[in-house]
Amino acid sequence: MVKKASTRLLGLLFFNMVFPFIRYRTGDIVEFTNQKCSCGRTSRVIDSIDGRQEDFVELPNGAKIGRLDHLFKGMTSVVESQVVQYSDLSRDFRIVRSKGYSGDCEKNLNEKIKSLLGSNVVYDFVYCEKIPRGKNGKLRFVVKEKERSGFD
User: What DSSP line would sit under 110-143, residue for residue?
Assistant: First the structure.
């Protein structure tokens, strides 16, 4: 039997000597295995990368759905977007629209969301001028919040 252990991934990168990354927290969860690498190296072997733990939404049945960014792929009328999941499992899709955004865009997005998350999923579209960044200045695609804060 192969023993596996999960842990958060830390990176080290000296490619850019002006600004090296030392103990860079990627947010990814990896699973290591105790199997040896066929190349002969003795370093730890990663069996799988589960991705960022926070970048998923949860459905009422407990299923966790990730990789939601493709909902907006090809939608040139969406400048930026973010999914906010609340503790009651409702969601807001925050959207910054360009001039070309129309009712057809919203209809298309509704169809994609229902096809991926199910027809009973509860969500709202919140249109805004800009989506707030995190403390690190980056835009997180999926954000978990306890309750609605009146952002809109």
Answer: HHHHHHHH-TT--EEEEE-S-PPP-TTSPPPSEE
Q: How many residues does the chain have?
A: 152
Q: pTM for this structure? A: 0.64
- For residue 75, how many C-alpha atoms fall within 13 Å in the half-sphere facing its CB? 25
Cα angle: 29, vertex 74, 107; to 5 degrees? 100
Q: How does pLDDT run across 40-56, given as a tens digit for each residue? A: 888 888 877 765 555 78
Q: Which residue has the tokens 């991926």?
A: 116
Full set of structural domains in the chain with CATH: 4-52 (no CATH), 56-145 (3.30.300.30)
- Judge whether 59 and 89 are in contact, CB under 8 Å: yes
Contact assessment for residue 97 and residue 78, using Cβ atoms and an 8 Å cutoff: yes
Q: What is the DSSP string of 8-40?
A: EEEEEE-SSTTS-EEEEEEEEEEEEESSPPTT-
Contact between residue 131 and residue 80 where contact means Cβ atoms under 8 Å apart:
yes
Rounded Cα gap, residues 8 and 29, in angstroms? 5
Tokens for 96, please give them.
Answer: 């910054």
